[in-house]
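ARCHIVE CARD
Drawer: 12
Card no.: 0347
Subject: one protein chain, sequence and derived structure
Cross-reference: see card 0346
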Amino acid sequence: MASVVLLSVKQTAQTKAKRCLGTRLRGLAGADVASVTLLSGKEWLSRGWSLRFMSHGTAGRSGAGATRRGALAFSGAAAVTAAAVVGLLANANHFQRAEMATRILQNAKKKKEEKEEEGSIAERCRGFMSAPVTDISVLEKRKDEMSTKMEMLIMETQAEFCKALEAVDGGKFKVDKWERKEGGGGISCVMQDGKVFEKAGVNVSVVFGYLTEEAAKQMRSRGKVLKGKDGKLPFCAMGVSSVIHPKNPHIPTVHFNYRYFEIEEEDGSKQWWFGGGTDLTPVYIDKEDAFLFHNTLKEACDKHHPKYYADFKKWCDRYFYVRHRGETRGIGGIFFDDLDSPNQEEVFNFVKSCARTVVPCYLPIVKKHLNDSFTPEEKDWQQVRRGRYVEFNLVYDRGVKFGLATPGSRIESILMSLPLTARWEYMHEPAKGSREAEMLEVLRNPKEWA
């Protein structure tokens, strides 16, 4: 009888603990996004509502043992209640607390995002780096059109990333809004000679008009057969792109780009497609950084299709390949182009998930290496690697080619991706067994990180 009473008391306590946990976590939904490390370990997550058990240095391991060794990283608006959450989680077993907390936090995040997107266009624009390219009144009238949804997404992505970088660097972005006489314009945000970043650029462009024959040929080479009226192809193109060149050689360069194209053919029908991706270019290999970066992207991809990450990771390795050097530009990420199925809304939601990873997949890496010391030799190696970056952008990059072939393009914004400084050494080859040689080995033989 005593054992039955004790079991009943234990079950009642667990039930109360679960109820209390649910109440406390639901109360977090309205607070600002923050990042908290509840147990020892590096800050792996910097945005969103998620609960993950990660084992540092055990990428790819599974099972309860690896999970128990991991750090409990809790990201979201929980800064002021972190200790209380830890105590509550301790009262449930491992799998129960992970399942309960994850479900509650994911629902809270979804409701928060839905609430943000239900707000008026004008309200959402207040948080941008600048007024959008398209007039707010026009966006309000066509708020259900894909061009409006995409313009709002790229403006939000620009603002979120710029503000995160400013918080780390302490500097401010110069906001340069420009117009294109042929139609549309853009907002270029650039920070130069900062404390952390030698050059950081985050561009938004929304352009429309008519495609030139040269630009149309580039699209046809990617499988798009386009038929214009009287030799003209009305188009609309928009996107957000960023390249960050840090001063410290132990902080990687990062690039992302997410874009939308719409073409009207001679019969009045429209072709549309999305493209983009995020990739990392370190100067030295750090396996923890690679694991964080790739797994954050994989999580975003897995929400939409189980093959997206694997397919787009391979595509990224193929695309960012400096053929005349026989090496990739960096350690990759994801890349996709001409994505137009299964339907417009589903592809847009996928692009939105990817765009929302740019802060959590990069800022923790920046913060981790902020105070790393480096030698003059390491700085020289960074300059050599930047030279390879320039070679790819000027010789192979489709975005640069498309921009240069589009009438009225803004050269300063197109070439924003180039670093302030770089170096080209004749017949440079690192010493065998060095960390520089290790980096080259990875670039010549891409690895699986997730």
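Annotation on reverse: The two ends are 52 Å apart (CA to CA). The chain is about 45% helix and 20% strand.
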